[in-house]
Amino acid sequence: MILQNGSKVWIQDKDLAWIGAEVIDSSSNRIVNLVTVSGKKVVASREDVLPRDVDEDEHGGVEDMIRLTYLNEPGVLYNLRRRYELNDIYTYTGSILIAVNPFTKIPHLYDTHMMEQYKGAPLGELSPHVFAVADASYRAMMNEGKSQSILVSGESGAGKTETTKLIMQYLTYVGGRASGDDRTVEQQVLEVSYS
Ligand SMILES: Nc1ncnc2c1ncn2[C@@H]1O[C@H](COP(=O)(O)OP(=O)(O)OP(=O)(O)O)[C@@H](O)[C@H]1O
């Protein structure tokens, strides 16, 4: 990584994990002098600093992290945090959806109006949302006539069960009643047990 005076970087921080900084002296081959965003002057080994996007001050973060110039750990965490602070709990990295558990109900995020909006909308056209992924999967199933899979992964308490329920809720909404089955999709979904 080429470092020069004024380069924006990330350095590790014992309290915050990562903190933004700017290079103020890059004359040494081994170390760089930096000033952190909180105004503290620090010295770091060149190999310990990671590049930071120059447009990182963009309000609200990016909806798709493919747009980040540097897809490194601090850049990803910082982007997710900024979105989370605005209650934007969903973020794409390409066609992968990242959900940050809000641990609280976010009004209107999952109501009928929201489901209606995502119905038939191409992935990426609207803000990142679990309904967009469910809709893409549903469309692919209908168009290709093949079963589809959605992988919901995360650590314990991350929100996998809630996310799965939301996917089922959306599929119930768009799916209606299966032919030859007297039960509504909603009834069938309610019979699904979550592990
Ligand atoms: N999208 C969401 N909106 C609001 N609250 C949520 C959301 N997702 C998760 N939660 C909250 O987080 C709690 C834990 O989520 P959940 O049970 O889905 O996690 P999990 O990944 O299935 O956990 P485990 O692997 O331990 O079973 C939920 O009971 C709920 O309170």
TrEMBL record:
Gene3D superfamilies in the record: Kinesin motor domain (3.40.850.10)
Cited SUPFAM superfamilies: P-loop containing nucleoside triphosphate hydrolases
GO terms, biological process: actin filament organization
Family note: Belongs to the TRAFAC class myosin-kinesin ATPase superfamily. Myosin family.
Cellular component terms per the entry's GO annotation: cytoplasm; membrane; myosin complex
Myosin motor domain residues: 60-195
PROSITE patterns in UniProt: MYOSIN_MOTOR, SH3_LIKE
Residues the entry annotates as binding ATP: G154, E155, S156, G157, A158, G159, K160, T161
SMART domains named in the record: MYSc (SM00242)
UniProt name for this protein: Uncharacterized protein
Keywords, ordered alphabetically: Actin-binding, ATP-binding, Calmodulin-binding, Motor protein, Myosin, Nucleotide-binding
A Pfam family hit: Myosin_head
InterPro entries with a match to the protein in the record: Kinesin_motor_dom_sf, Myosin_head_motor_dom-like, P-loop_NTPase, SH3_Myosin
MF terms in GO: actin filament binding; ATP binding; calmodulin binding; microfilament motor activity
Organism: Lupinus luteus
Myosin N-terminal SH3-like domain span: 4-54
